[in-house]
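Exercise 7 asks you to align residues with tokens for two separate proteins.
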Amino acid sequence: MEYTRKLTEKLSVEQVKIELLHTAYGNNETFLAKLDPRTLFMWYLYFGIAPWFIHNQSILIGLFVFMAITTFMSKVTPLVIIILCLGLLGQGGYLLIASWFFGGDLQVIVPLLTLTLKLSIISLASITVFCSMDPEKLSNGLLKIGVPGQVSFSIAYGYRMLPSLLEEYHHVFLSFRLRGKAPDKHGVLYWRSIIYFSKIAVLSFYPLLLSTAKRARTTVEALETKGSFYAFSRPEIKKIKLVHLRFQYRDYLFLMVSVLYILLLYTFVFLFFKEGL
């Protein structure tokens, strides 16, 4: 009973919100968080795309180990890791079931494991990059590489609003439970309760969407009143806003270590395993 209570506390909406806030704002002291956002963008440009074109399992395993190290360095919260694992298990599981349904055998496991390994590398690279940048830093980095101001602001705004939206969704969900009537009996394997809560979970999205649209409109009107969108199109204002972004010694060091690791990994695989990409 005590274990169930502790598990429920860890899975509460309030705890999820705290984990999201920690992910967005709590990693400012890590080495990766101190890098220039353009450095992280360039680093992610390889590790987020290259695994799709690599079919050598040894190289993929080496990249996965490197991604695991960088994810550990970025101090990712356990919630994000759990969501990643559930997503990968669901992705590989339904593909395995579908392949067996259409006449596959145990030989399909190896390609599915390779695909899962690729998805793991790309997912860990995404977690490493975006958990190392708060919304403001992400927005400034996108502006610096030439992304339109409205687009960069929209991404950062959505990033900031996620914990608030989660809390509001929880309130709407509880209001539906308060006004509704739960099943008198749970049924076999709790199927009545599952249907009841699933229905409430879907219905709770509609008020949330309306509230989000209203809040976004209010925010846009406030920004237009202050002239923020005019500032997005003025190069001199953007230059002043982004003057603090510059490459430093640690940026070059991080990129050099990454490139050196990749070169050593390819050399090791080609020399000792005699395999291609």
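Second protein for Exercise 7:
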Amino acid sequence: MVNSFQARYRLNNGAMIPYLGMGVFQVTDQQHVTGAIEKALEFGYRSFDTGAVYNNEKLVGEAIGHSDIARDDLFISSKIWNGDQGYDKVLTAFEHTLENLGVDFLDMYLIHWPLTEMYTETWRAMERLYEEKMVRAIGVANFKEHHLANLFVKANVKPAIDQVETHPLLPQNELRAYLAEQGIAHGAWSPLAKGALFQNPVIGEIARKHGVHVDQVILRWHMERNTITMSRSISAKRTLENTQLFDFKLDAEDMKRIGQLETGKRVGPDPDDVDFMIASMEKERAMFS
């Protein structure tokens, strides 16, 4: 269980990542990105998670660059997009990401999706970046157990993290157990299920019990499970509230009740549905180009 906003998780290679960070998916307006990150830094956030497909790496880099926070105190992550997978393409894409962010190295670099027949070659390039100390930790996103098992056959370095859709409707319990066995951290994206739980009566009752907001209950649930969580908000009020998750605790009964909300429902693509995933993500990328 995480007990403070400043707490950090020790990854399997020794790198330390904050449990709670800011994600910037779908935030591409310069004013929103700059304002959100400036406030987040002011409130104590030190972890920022972006991706090449988000089309905002440059904005994130500029916002962070304007701060007086020491680079070593920050944890900056990005992700390799599907169209950039493959050994040579990864190395080129990584250079673009560094340039966009205005940094000399990344704290973490992830494979965004397990693109069939490509991700093992992509991982080989990422291992090179890791060995050359261009990135402090390498990991994956949206990998299921069978993707990881396939990767392990050829990998020399185990992923430090698997960042997957996780929320009370989709707690990823089996995958969590597998990741724990393998010494890989569990990271959560879409931790609030895109608002699907905001009107849930169980969550609402627990929120009233503790005198907090519904989203705080859900994020606290993630913290109780020691999950590295990326929360997205351009609201300064909400960003500040997210730092106050440690003013209350969920008891065993709260956790049991939330655990019973599991339905298996996803709010994003299933990593096994490759054709749908590629089509939907390309459409999404076009929307934000």
